[in-house]
Amino acid sequence: MKTLKYSRQREAIKAYLASTKRHPTADVVYSHVQEEFPHISLGTVYRNLNLLAELGEVRKITTPDGADRFDGDVSQHYHVICSECGKIFDLDMKMQDSLNQLADHSFSGTIHSHTALFYGICEDCEKTSVQKQ
């Protein structure tokens, strides 16, 4: 594998993702990184986000709405998507390795890992819903 050339822009993207728990889209990352690098293109941000995800330096979260989200926390953890506002939250829950074993029994190959997205309504949206009633 080729040695990856250092990039200040790529480091700024990683630093932004490490500084937030919001799981931003590429467009949001672009708007933040553009403050430091006004001439950066959206394409450059997309390429670097995908490269960082391939290298395992950030996590890419594919969502049903079609907009990939990015997470600077690459540790194994689950996420919850609010079905009202669309925000993504980290779920403070131990990874369920037993799911790998259960799935392995139903698969002719070998299961190594899994990801899961949970869906629900966040606390803020629940409060808003109660206030409307």
Structure keywords:
133 residues; alpha+beta; 3-stranded mixed beta sheet; two-stranded antiparallel ribbon; 5 helices; flat
Notes on the protein architecture:
This protein is of the alpha+beta class. It has a 3-stranded mixed β-sheet with strand order 4-3-5, with no helix packed on it. It has 5 helices and 5 strands. Helix content is 41%, strand content 14%. It is flat. α1 packs across α2 (26-36) and α2 (26-36) packs across α3. It starts with 7 loop residues before the first helix and ends with a helix.
Number of helices: 5
The mean pLDDT is 93
Order of helices and strands: HHHEEEEHEH
Distance between the termini: 59 Å
Q: Outline, from the CA principal axes?
A: flat
Counting copies of identical and different chains, the oligomeric state is: single chain
Helix content: 40-55%
Strand fraction equals 5-15%
Our Rg estimate from Cα atoms comes to 18 Å
